[in-house]
């Protein structure tokens, strides 16, 4: 029986299930316990699972992310929550230099089964130190997997395979999605390897992830009214990218627009476009274009913030440009 | 200005039986001879990249590691050849790793700075200054949550004390009462920066104590002091079920790495510290107590040399990891799930 629930509830359920089923799993981060989670993802967990497993940390991103790596090495399955991707920069050393590198530099002796969750993205007028989308940076790093659940079922389903994965997995949760409500299908189990078509089409594929997915779907709806059948491909897994899934959609639709809330220069969108050039150039009927954030730290004022980000109208305009 | 003068030469009775004393002496000799040979092989172009020698500091690692048990976890730095060896890693696997050979502990992917050994719970080999401390906190957290009795010993230099990772880690370990033994090898320099040029407070024990953990200090040139202090630290740690900090005051006789022209310290300072060298001062004390003869010393030294020769032969005879396997071990293969 399908149920309606929010992205937040779906993620909360996923964590609850993991904590209830596996004594090795614990949640650690700033204000995950008494406060109930910065975004209320772990409300009530402290009472149910106790302070050992719902572990409030001091403001020490480097320290507690590194401790998560050590705990994973020591036999636990930590879920480390970092409030936002902006703050994760204080822990970047541990993620890149230790978690991602350890297995390789130890010649395969030590894997790091760690899950790091963090909020990403803009749209809430939080300005330039709380709004960035840096998941593309993480997707640059060999040795970690990078996920971006953008639907209710992925919020519910992606955590379990991430925890079962023997290597570090970083999950980006776009703040704009938390209140999203939707139906959870009976089978919400998820893989962490493939892109998924969220709306089928044939004239153009809009390739996106995370908080831009609802915008892409809205754009596709508008385009349908104008006679353009846009397919929407949700990348879901930003590293490793599902090259086959991307190329299949491009080969089918022959036109592609890549939408990414990261800045255009050096973005994940740039990587997707480059791969299309390498692998599907001759399938294309038009140049691939990108809709990304403007090259500016995210501003506070609502109209400026909106202008800085990808929006459904911009996506519609970009698609129409391919048919002009 | 911090005192850079060497402490008085180690002296006084050695409170150990002959057997134990000679085991520690042997380990110091094994490190010394292995590293002298490594430097030679660096000159010969067999070993490349960074090579950080521990020569002069052997009493610290040997004395401390012999106070720990095989169940304990070890986290170390890029100056870790000695720790890896004393912990029980095969000298051949270490030498082969420095050669970049397939037979090395990481199949040539780590090199001198990244020695790892799962069998002896040796978690590397971390070349980010301070990078090992948060890891040690997590290993100790896991041990505590899993109700395992092990201690996690984390070695780092005086330079690491200025890193945020040091402060975050000591705070977390003390706050959560975790069994971490913080082993600070204070050799007075981080590369070319003397401690008083990098620390506003050069009393490192004072810093550690401010986090609410016991902080002990030992003469790192005196293996008796190192070992006895570490034993006491481990005892305190096991009783109090919280972290303990130990500062070992030591000195590196060689350059920071093979690229260092040593412009930042006086020859006389190095020479003075060399007179406190941990191997000859300890040997002299053992001889004075009748626990060591010159013949025995020469035999131990010859055995260390032979082990080194065998390790070099092993590394020389080793093979190169096939380039086809370049991407191996970036992620865990499905069958190798931990
Ligand atoms: C985060 C970081 N910064 C700088 C370096 C370069 N570096 C390598 S060793 C070193 C000195 C460290 O000194 P210390 O911690 O006292 O250890 P020692 O080398 O004396 O054993 C420096 C600056 C590094 N590896 N990592
Ligand atoms: Mg130093």
CATH domain fold name of the largest domain in chain A = Rossmann fold
Number of domains of chain A: 2
Low-confidence stretches of chain A: none
Alpha-carbon distance between the two ends of chain A = 45 Å
**What ranges of chain B have pLDDT less than 50 throughout 5 or more consecutive residues?**
none
Determine the CATH superfamily of the largest domain in chain A. Thiamin diphosphate (ThDP)-binding fold, Pyr/PP domains
Termini gap of chain B: 50 Å
Strand order of the largest sheet of chain A: 3-2-4-5-7-6-12
CATH superfamily of chain B: Thiamin diphosphate (ThDP)-binding fold, Pyr/PP domains
Enumerate the strands of the largest sheet of chain B in spatial order, edge to edge or round the barrel: 2-1-3-4-8-7
Count, helices of chain B: 11
The helix fraction of chain B, in percent, is 40-55%
Number of helices of chain A: 14
CATH architecture of chain B: 3-Layer(aba) Sandwich
Kindly state the percentage of residues in helix of chain A. 25-40%
Largest sheet of chain A: 7 strands, mixed
Mind telling me the CATH class of the largest domain in chain A?
Alpha Beta
Structure, explained:
In chain A, α10 (213-225) packs across α14 (312-323). In chain A, the strands form 3 sheets. Chain A has a 7-stranded mixed β-sheet, with helices on both faces. A 5-stranded mixed β-sheet of chain A has the order 9-11-10-13-14, with helices on both faces. In chain A, α12 (268-280) links the parallel β13 and β14. Chain A is globular. Chain A contains 14 helices and 14 strands. With 324 residues, chain A is α/β, with parallel strands linked by helices. Chain A has helices at 7-21, 45-49, 61-73, 85-88, 92-99, 102-105, 135-138, 152-157, 159-164, 213-225, 243-253, 268-280, 302-308, 312-323; strands at residues 3-6, 25-29, 54-56, 77-84, 115-120, 145-147, 169-174, 181-184, 196-199, 204-208, 230-234, 237-239, 256-263, 289-293. The mean pLDDT of chain A is 97. Chain A is 37% helix and 21% strand. Chain B is of the alpha/beta class and 338 residues long. Chain B is 42% helix and 11% strand. Chain B contains 11 helices and 8 strands. In chain B, the strands form 2 sheets. In chain B, strands 2-1-3-4-8-7 form a 6-stranded parallel β-sheet, with helices on both faces. A two-stranded antiparallel ribbon of chain B has the order 5-6. In chain B, α6 (164-175) links the parallel β3 (152-157) and β4. Chain B is globular and about 50 Å long. At the A-B interface, α3, α5 and α6 of A face β2, α5 and α6 of B. Bound molecules: thiamine diphosphate and magnesium ion (MG). Residues 157-159, 187, 189-190 of chain B line the site of magnesium ion.
């Amino acid at each position: 029986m399908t149920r309606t629930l929010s992205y937040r509830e779906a993620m909360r359920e996923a964590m609850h299930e993991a904590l209830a089923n596996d004594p090795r799993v614990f949640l650690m981060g700033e204000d995950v316990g008494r406060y109930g989670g910065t975004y209320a993802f772990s409300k009530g967990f402290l009472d149910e699972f106790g302070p050992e497993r719902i572990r409030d940390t001091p403001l020490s991103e480097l320290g507690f992310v590194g401790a998560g790596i050590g705990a994973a090495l020591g036999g636990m399955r930590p879920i480390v929550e970092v409030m936002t991707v902006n703050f994760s920069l204080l822990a970047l050393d541990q993620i890149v230099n230790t978690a991602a590198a350890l297995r390789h530099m130890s010649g395969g002796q030590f894997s790091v089964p760690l899950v790091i969750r963090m909020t990403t993205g803009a749209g809430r007028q939080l300005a330039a130190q709380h709004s960035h989308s840096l998941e593309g940076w993480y997707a640059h790093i060999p040795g970690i997997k990078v996920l971006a659940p953008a639907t209710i079922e992925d919020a519910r389903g992606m955590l379990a395979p991430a925890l079962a994965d023997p290597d570090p997995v970083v999950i980006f949760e776009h703040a704009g999605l938390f209140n999203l409500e939707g139906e959870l299908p009976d089978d919400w189990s998820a893989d962490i390897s493939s892109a998924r078509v969220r709306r089928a089409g044939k004239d153009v594929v809009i390739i996106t992830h995370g908080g831009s997915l609802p915008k892409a779907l809205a754009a596709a709806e508008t385009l349908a009214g104008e006679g353009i059948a846009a397919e929407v491909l949700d990348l879901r897994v930003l590293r490793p990218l599902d090259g086959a899934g991307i190329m299949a959609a491009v080969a089918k639709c022959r036109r592609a627009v890549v939408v990414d809330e990261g800045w255009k220069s050096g973005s994940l969108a740039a990587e997707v476009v480059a791969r299309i050039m390498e692998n599907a150039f001759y399938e294309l009927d038009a140049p691939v274009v990108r809709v990304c954030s403007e090259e500016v730290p995210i501003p506070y004022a609502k109209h400026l913030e909106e202008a800085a980000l990808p929006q459904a109208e911009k996506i519609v305009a970009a698609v129409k440009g391919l048919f002009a | 200005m911090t005192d850079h003068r060497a402490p008085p030469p180690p002296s006084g009775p050695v409170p150990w039986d002959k057997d134990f004393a000679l085991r520690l002496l042997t380990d110091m000799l094994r490190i010394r001879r292995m590293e002298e040979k490594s430097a030679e092989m660096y000159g010969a172009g067999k070993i490349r990249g960074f090579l950080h020698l521990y020569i002069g500091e052997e009493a610290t690692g040997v004395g401390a590691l012999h106070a720990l048990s095989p169940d304990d976890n070890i986290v170390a730095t890029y100056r870790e050849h000695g720790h890896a060896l004393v912990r029980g890693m095969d000298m051949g696997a270490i030498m082969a790793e420095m050669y970049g050979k397939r037979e090395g502990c990481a199949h040539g992917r780590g090199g001198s700075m990244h020695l790892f050994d799962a069998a002896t719970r040796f978690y590397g080999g971390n070349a980010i200054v301070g990078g090992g401390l948060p890891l040690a906190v997590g290993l100790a957290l896991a041990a505590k949550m899993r109700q395992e009795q092990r201690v996690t010993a984390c070695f780092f230099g005086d330079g690491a004390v200025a890193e945020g990772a040091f402060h975050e880690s000591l705070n977390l370990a003390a706050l959560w009462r975790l069994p971490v033994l913080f082993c600070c090898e204070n050799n007075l320099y981080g590369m070319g920066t003397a401690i008083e040029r990098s620390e506003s407070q050069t009393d490192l024990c004072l810093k550690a104590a401010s986090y609410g953990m016991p902080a002990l200090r030992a003469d790192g040139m005196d293996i008796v002091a190192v070992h006895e202090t570490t034993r006491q630290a481990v005892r305190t740690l096991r009783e109090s079920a919280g972290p303990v900090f130990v500062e070992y005051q030591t000195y590196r006789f060689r350059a920071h790495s093979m690229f260092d022209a040593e412009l930042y310290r006086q020859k006389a300072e190095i020479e003075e510290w060399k007179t406190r060298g941990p191997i000859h001062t300890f040997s002299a004390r053992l001889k004075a107590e009748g626990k060591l003869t010159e013949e025995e010393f020469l035999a131990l030294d010859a055995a260390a040399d032979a082990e080194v020769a065998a390790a070099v032969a092993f590394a020389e005879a080793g093979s190169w990891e096939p380039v086809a396997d370049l991407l191996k071990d970036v992620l865990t293969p499905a069958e190798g799930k931990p």
